[in-house]
Amino acid sequence: MTISVYPEYKESGVPWLGHVPEHWEVKRLKYVATLITRKSCVDEQAVALENIESWTARYLATDSEFEGDGVSFESGDILFGKLRPYLAKAWLAEFNGTAVGDFHVLRLRNVFDGRFACYLLLSQGYISLIDGSTFGAKMPRVSWEFMGNTVIPLPPFEEQRAIASFLDRKTAQIDELIAKKEALLKKLDEKRTAIITQAVTKGLDPSVPMKDSGVEWIGKIPEHWIVLKITHGFKTIGSGTTPKSDNSDFYDGNIPWVTTSELRETVIENTTQNISIDAFQTHSALKIYPTGSIVIAMYGATIGRLGILGVDATVNQACCVFAQPATFVSVFFYYWLIMRKPILLSQSTGGGQPNLSLEDLKHIRIPTPPIEEQQAIAEHIEKKTAIIDRQRAQVTEAIQRLKEYRRSLITNAVTGNIQITAYYNQGTNHANSRRLE
């Protein structure tokens, strides 16, 4: 199969499409697809937004149970996520069921191939068009009135099927490459974790005598290490607060103010918001912590995230700060917390929003080598993980390029910027391409 451009093009009259192949039609979506609104009345399999993977149109099985009214759909219908964060979610139904939540359910007419339609609705240009039309401040959605009036390209039906078959094959190849690279990322993460865990719990010399740590999940530690509470390792352990947001005089000052969204296992050099000296003097819970302090998120979606202050800064109430080390090297402690994170999270309290309390964090006990050895361990970890981090960055970049290529290929194919010159055998099974009157 070869790829080229079509011999003749015409203006579509639609900005997001530009020119299209001469023999293609352009139609409003509502003329080739009907919005289904019939409420489900039987106990059918429910599909929610979380069941659809962004951009790929893949169905994801979950154990979730969904409540509330839904819209009945049939195999061959398209479920399109209308909530803005989910606009890159569309699925060609493979079974009959109930669409629960923010879906437009579309039933295609006999001129519109299901697989081609799904690729088209997930093309970058179409998603951008839809995204720009959403309404509502907190939970913006796209209306069917707008979506139904969007103009789409419509090749001859058999050409739609050929384009869809081409994209099925090419995206499967790309997805396989992405999966392999994501597996490599997982291995690199496991290697990084192993390096940190070994170093902060066993040290760098495998020949030293060992003793029981007294901590079940750690086991044995070097004989000359001691177990200390965190409160013995830092002179200051504290948190912060949020100045009243309705007082503009408290913000846009010169004092960096760290929130949990800025904790990303990196050094924090800049903060999204700064507070004023007035805010600092008004709120007694605010303290300025020195550069080098370790920060951990205590609750919310970011629970367990870490950061190292690269500047003197204050923090909000969701951050716990370990400052002014006495018997700890801060970077050693930082890596120990990275290693400890899964256990910290497993011990967090609360249902819907688990949290790590300041008092619980203060009572953690840490196997601790002498200061010089802590420094050597930290330097060893930094050296080893820097290599892995570079490898990880390269793999992540490659994954991003593949995803961008995938989207570009789909967009170019469904809008006619490239021509698929060798059609697939029309006898191929197109079970998902229903032709309805």
Question: How would you describe the overall organization of this protein?
Answer:
The structure is a single chain. With 437 residues, the protein is α+β, with helices and mostly antiparallel strands. It folds into two domains: 3-167 and 404-420, Adenine-n6-DNA-methyltransferase TaqI, Chain A, domain 2, CATH 3.90.220; 226-368, Alpha-Beta Complex (Adenine-n6-DNA-methyltransferase TaqI, Chain A, domain 2), CATH 3.90.220. It is 33% helix and 22% strand. It contains nine helices and 25 strands. The chain has helices at 114-121, 124-131, 144-148, 157-202, 230-233, 277-282, 330-346, 358-362, 371-414; strands at 3-4, 9-11, 19-21, 25-28, 33-36, 46-47, 70-73, 78-81, 90-92, 97-100, 103-108, 151-154, 210-212, 220-222, 226-229, 234-238, 251-258, 266-268, 273-275, 294-297, 306-309, 314-315, 319-325, 365-368, 419-420. The strands form nine sheets. The protein has a five-stranded mixed sheet with strand order 16-23-20-21-18. Strands 5-11-8-9 form a four-stranded antiparallel sheet, covered by helices on one side. Strand 2 and strand 3 (19-21) form a beta hairpin. Helix 1 (114-121) crosses helix 4 and helix 4 (157-202) crosses helix 7 (330-346). Residues 422-437 have low confidence and may be disordered.
